[in-house]
Amino acid sequence: MIPGRTRARLGWVDAAVLTAVVVALGYVFHRVEAVLEYRWDWSAIPNSLYRWDEETGRWVPNLLMQGFFTTIRLAILSMIPAALFGAVFGVLRTAGRLFPRLLSRTYVELIRNIPPLVFIFIFYFFISSQIMPVLGVEDFVRRASPATLRSLELVFGPAALIPNVISGVICLAMFQGAYMTEIVRAGIQSIPKTQTEAGLSIGLSRWELWRRVILPQALRRVIPPLAGQFITLVKDSSILSLISIQELTFLAMETAVSTTRVFEVWITVAALYFCLCYFLSLLFGRLEKSAAAARA
Amino acid sequence: MIELDGVSKWFGAFQVLRDVRLRVAEGERIVICGPSGSGKSTLIRCINRLEEHQEGRVVFAGRELGADAAGLTEVRREIGMVFQEFNLFPHLTVLENCMLGPVRVLGMTPADARERAMEFLVRVRIPEQAGKHPAQLSGGQQQRAAIARSLCMRPRVMLFDEPTSALDPVMIKEVLDVMNDLAQSGMTMIVVTHEMGFARTVADRVAFMDEGSIVECLPPDRFFTNPADERTKRFLSQIL
User: Fold this and answer.
1) CA nearest A246: which of A235, A258, A234, A254?
2) What is the mean pLDDT of residues A126-146?
3) B104 vs A208: CB contact, 8 Å cut-off?
4) CB B50 to CB A200 under 8 A?
5) B122: nearest Cα among B105, B101, B147, B140
6) Quick one: which H or E segment has residue B58?
7) Rounded-to-integer distance, Cα B166 and Cα B172, Å
8) Mean pLDDT calculated for residue range A201-217
9) Between chains, do A202 and B50 touch, taking CB under 8 Å as contact?
10) pLDDT digits (tens, 9 = 90+) for A263-284
């Protein structure tokens, strides 16, 4: 992309930084080895990822991988409503009329100014005790035919956990949506007013103006910050462990306790999160490039 | 066809338009000139209601422009507008810019809209640029694309808001040539411009605006040789 990009060459500043990093890492390693005297034992880890199931005679995911898959499901499932909240409230945030602006402002400020954890404690109680029974999710799952149940399980994970996962998704989407609202608003406001004028002057209706002129440009501009927010969403899904959503962090706590290998388990979990998030940032990087190519 | 009757407008406490009266007949070509800040742009933006006036009446083809939003899009599709900064849609190709209105507003099929768009791109002499995005075009080409985009709606009137002010001399000529052609074809035009050569050769009447009002509005031969008002004389001596 950048024309005439130079080959990497090591200057003395780079060398100094590199040395400092190596020394710091060496020091940490030394402290852990010599002073902390922690005895590493990774033997429990493979088994907590996958275990041999005697009954079926197959390898099946154990707690950590189950949690990892739930985290992926949570992430994908909540991205959709979160983006939807972000788009709708972001548009309302720039509305000419006062009421829609007030509504979306209230939503954003309410969520941005409460710690996510506190919001989730309050909101989860409300969702799980009030909204889930109304939606009738549990009944639906119980009465579902084997065929629907199989497709449900593909999307939401093990049947017993479906209400649990859905509550988690709603919580996560609600509070991530607020941050996305602000990103979308900034994108919309970065489109000059002259674009609106040009659209109106060829007779476009308000809806067509948004659909064909403003939103395509605004969304293209917010791909990078939105991608960042999606990755934040994946990482923030870990706080759902505190309302007993059985995702990666929640099951990692259990595994850490049951195996007593605290560092080993958490380092493994960190690696899993890293892989997932890094994969996403590569994916979004691609998307950004193809959007840029489409514009040129 | 267009009638402005006692139109006044304020930006806050500042009065931009003072009791403006102007009648434009079908096929007529009006050039509006005047010092910057005199309200020329605001005036023509009131004609398709990109700006709202506070007093007086703006009537287009017998329909008064008011707060009635449904009728407004009807009126706007019949009034083409060309801006100083072109305002093409940067995410669409030139061809798509031209097709957007016909497809989404007039309900034409994409094939018909494409045919019409190409016809007008030929008329503004940039058919070979159809597949490019606006950022890849020169200023003069962009402005001609913007003119084609407006013409694709087959408007009854074309408004030009300083169409050549953002261009260098070579490009100015390209754009003025296209506007000349358009005038030859009998299009009703209202043009805000400092191009006095264009005013002299193309305009039926030239209006001079100062401090929000139309000082005088005369055929070009009288406007340039024998204006009545002191302010017009001073302006002409500065600009010519």
Assistant:
1) A254
2) 78
3) yes
4) yes
5) B147
6) strand B55-60
7) 9
8) 92
9) no
10) 889 999 999 999 999 999 999 8
Cα–Cα distance between B234 and B92 in angstroms, integer?
Answer: 45
Highest mean pLDDT among A145-154, A156-165, B25-34: B25-34
C-alpha A111/C-alpha A118 separation (Å) is 10
Q: Do residues B70 and B146 lie in contact, with contact meaning Cβ atoms separated by under 8 Å?
A: no
User: Which residues in chain A touch residue B149, judged by CB atoms under 8 angstroms apart?
Assistant: 202
**A296 contact residues in B (CB cutoff 8 A):** 133
Interchain pair A212, B83: CB under 8 A = no
Q: What is the pLDDT of residue B23?
A: 93
Instruction: List the single residue in A194, A200, A216 with the smallest CB-CB distance to B76.
Output: A200
Give the end-to-end CA distance of chain B in Å, rounded to a whole number: 32
Contact B91 A197 (CB under 8 A): no
Q: Say which residue the tokens 């995005």 belong to.
A: B133
- Judged by phi (left if over 0) then psi (alpha if -120 to 50, else beta), residue A103 lies in alpha
pTM of the full predicted structure?
0.80
How does pLDDT run across A52-76, given as a tens digit for each residue? 888 888 888 888 898 899 899 889 9
Whole-angstrom Cα distance, residue B74 to residue B158?
Answer: 15
DSSP, res A8: P
Closest CA to A266 of A285, A284, A254, A252: A252
Do the Cβ atoms of A201 and B150 come within 8 Å? yes
User: Is the model's pLDDT at B165 over the cut of 50?
Assistant: yes
Of B83, B105, B133, the CB nearest to A203: B105
| CB-count exposure of residue A54 (10 Å: 0-12, 13-18, 19+) | exposed
Task: Calculate the average pLDDT of chain A.
Answer: 86
The answer to whether A197 contacts B133, with C-beta atoms less than 8 Å apart, is no
| Terminal-to-terminal C-alpha distance of chain A | 12
| Residue in B closest to A198 by C-alpha | B87
pLDDT higher than threshold 80 for residue B220:
yes
What are B98-128's pLDDT values in tens digits? 999 999 999 999 999 999 999 999 999 999 9
Q: Which of A197, A202, A205 comes nearest B50 by C-beta?
A: A197
- At A1, is the pLDDT very low, low, confident or very high (cuts 50, 70, 90)? very low
Q: With contact defined as beta carbons under 8 Å apart, do A83 and A180 qualify?
A: yes
> Nearest-CA residue of chain B relative to A293?
B91
CB A214 within 8 A of CB B100: no
Q: CA separation (Å) from B165 to B192, B194, B195, B201?
A: 10, 8, 9, 19
Q: What is the pLDDT of residue B17?
A: 93
Query: Is residue B150 predicted with pLDDT exceeding 80?
Result: yes
